[in-house]
Amino acid sequence: MLLVSLTFAFGCSGSMSGGRKETRFIYSYALIKPAVNDQLLFKDDYITIQFKLDESAVKFQLQNISEVPISIVWENVAIGLNNRVYPVKNSATLYQTEMAHPVSLIIPSLGYVRDLVIPRDYISIENSEWVERDLFPSNDKGSPKRKNLILKYIGSQIKLLLPLKIGEVVQDYTFIFKVKNVDAVPEDKLPPIKERPVPPQVASAVQGSQSLLPVLIAGGILAVAIYAFSREKAAPINF
């Protein structure tokens, strides 16, 4: 069983916006393909997989119940939101700024992995912090019009394309989740929280690079002056 709690990082329900109280909403899902299951659980002759969806990611636990090794073909994994398809990041590449595919890990017989997928475009650095965008809107921002829009997401679908290499054969799994309900988070309760790896300290990395700027400029001028003796090398910046 996947025992992971949902988390929240965008403030609490009941805050004020333009004189109206903001309300946050939580989505509940059912798995409708390749089999119908309200517990978001699927099993066949090769795998057992259970999902948990939060505001911006699809989390899962995948166990190999076959007798051959299995791996996720990450370069072909994709997520679709109401038919628009995106490349993904997983827990290992969540805070990487380059366009790298997650590394495929061999899962031996009876072994399992826990991971997540998030649309690559839905996580970015804003004001020196990693910010995730909701899969579907979850805050009405005090607007009745936006609240009605959020409630219309009932019936929307999330599609996860998860190719698996089973032994020497690649099998394409397509998991489709349907929004069953959209419920307001009560004012006296905090919304569920998202569980993520600890993000790197973006601010310190940026500040460090800025403090090096005068040195790099001076070094560049010096390098031009003595080009015949040395070459300037750009200092890497690690976020």
Structure explained in plain terms:
By secondary structure, the protein is mainly β. The protein folds into 2 domains: 16-184, no CATH class; 200-239, no CATH class. Helices cover 13% and strands 36% of the residues. The chain is built from 2 helices and 14 strands. It has helices at 144-151, 202-225, and strands at 16-17, 20-21, 25-33, 41-43, 47-53, 58-64, 70-72, 78-81, 84-89, 112-119, 123-126, 129-132, 157-166, 169-184. Strands 3, 4, 5, 6, 7, 8, 9, 10, 13 and 14 form a 10-stranded antiparallel sheet that branches. The protein has a two-stranded antiparallel ribbon with strand order 1-2. The protein starts with 15 loop residues before the first strand and ends in a 14-residue tail after the last helix.
Shape: globular
Q: How many strands in all?
A: 14
How many angstroms separate the termini?
34 Å
Question: How many whole angstroms does the radius of gyration measure?
Answer: 22 Å
Which percent range describes the beta-strand content?
35-45%
Task: Average the pLDDT over all residues and give the rounded result.
Answer: 81
Number of domains: 2
The tally of helices reads: 2
Judged by helices, strands and strand pairing, the structural class is mainly beta
What characterizes the major β-sheet?
10 strands, antiparallel
Q: Could you list the spans in which at least 5 consecutive residues all have pLDDT below 50?
A: 1-15, 204-239
Helix content: 10-25%
Task: Summarize the helix and strand pattern as letters.
Answer: EEEEEEEEEEEEHEEH
